[in-house]
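Figure S7 source data.
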Amino acid sequence: MKTTAFSTHKFEEPYLVKANNGKHHLKLLESRLTEETAILAKGSKAVSLFTGDNASTKVLEKLNAIGIQNIALRSAGFNHVDLAKAGELNMKVARVPAYSPYAIAEHTIALILALNRKLVRAHNRVRDMNFSLNGLTGFDLNGKTVGVMGTGKIGKVLIKILHGFGCKVIAYDLEEDKELKEKYCVRFTDCRTLCSEADIISLHVPLTSETRHIINAEQIGVMKKGVMLINTSRGGLVDTKAVIDGLKTGKVGYFGMDVYEEEEGLFFEDHSDEILQDDVIARLMTFPNVLITSHQAFLTDTALTNIAETTVYNLDCFENETVSGNEVKIN
Ligand code: NAI
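Tokens for the predicted NAI complex:
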């Protein structure tokens, strides 16, 4: 099937080419999908999109007008696609539901450890021949209470790892997980109680209208002083300005973020020759207790292989008009 893949990056190209093995006619573009670039897909029957692509109403209408019938997402999240519009236009949307929950859970742990043990600061000091330990004191993870919001695929893996560290885990989800309760002594509670009791809070719910700004000034208000907040899910879960206020007062002691509300057009690209226009992220970058990675939690060899193979499988299913099980529809 002729497919235009938007937002393809150097890091994923070899995986896509290998998984495709010449089967589908893939046009790999570096450009993000926007209203202006949609026309580049002309001649294809499908597009393949990444998290930063814009598949809003107007863009879908433009794609549909040039004959695009299928959308293969190279991501698990689909909050960037107007599913209602896609359904209305009879466009099929498929995603990669699980490519490696381990990749994201392990990156979450990397952020927790690096923030706690001040690894970036320590590394920079040593490179500067400064071997002083002052200001580098961390805390034992053992015995700390970690609040995990969302105990789906990623949340579950994270809980298993945290259990190994000797952490107490409390969780918030729409459904309580029996295995997590029995095997890992997880206590399920409501969002507010989780916020008030946890030393570390990690977000693993999807971004929906209910979860947007699930971390806001009110929730931060009930948190323990010096709480560590980690977001490797979606930027919109956090009211970033409220977190900045929390960081300024010391209420938020650490903030690790792999995703950002306004990451579209910023993350994944080299902007080192430009003047940063986003004052919110600019402020975040000034805190020594904030660690930012640019949406790289998924970036492992295993995950990239699985993303590429499932995307090609989804294109096979579009072409053969078979049901992949990976299709996403509005409920
Ligand atoms: P999942 O669907 O397996 O789990 C999500 C969990 O959230 C489910 O248990 C669900 O019941 C719960 N949930 C949904 N709405 C809720 C609500 N309103 N209140 C409480 N709980 C709610 O998803 P998975 O695979 O664990 O991924 C989680 C998120 O991680 C994705 O939605 C995506 O946004 C993000 N992600 C980030 C990546 C990165 O590279 N940073 C890569 C992959 C996923």
